[in-house]
């Protein structure tokens, strides 16, 4: 039972990490595009 809860929490945490990494990459891409537009 404890291992099931641990696995469930681990899966949720991994999904949250992946989602936050995607948001970070998206924000970096938008920021890079915006700085390129403002520089040119």
What does this structure look like?
- The chain has one helix at 2-39.
- With 40 residues, the protein is mainly alpha-helical.
- It has one domain.
- The longest helix is centred in the middle third of the chain and has 38 residues, at 2-39.
- The mean pLDDT is 91.
Question: In short, what is this structure?
Answer:
With 40 residues, the chain is mainly alpha-helical. It is built from 1 helix and no strands.
Keywords:
single chain; 40 residues; mainly alpha; 1 helix
Task: Present the secondary structure layout.
Elements (H helix, E strand, L loop, with lengths): L1 H38 L1
State the end-to-end CA separation. Answer: 59 Å
Cα-atom radius of gyration? 17 Å
Number of strands: 0
The whole-number mean of residue pLDDT values reads 91
- Uncertain regions spanning at least 5 consecutive residues: none
What about the largest sheet? none
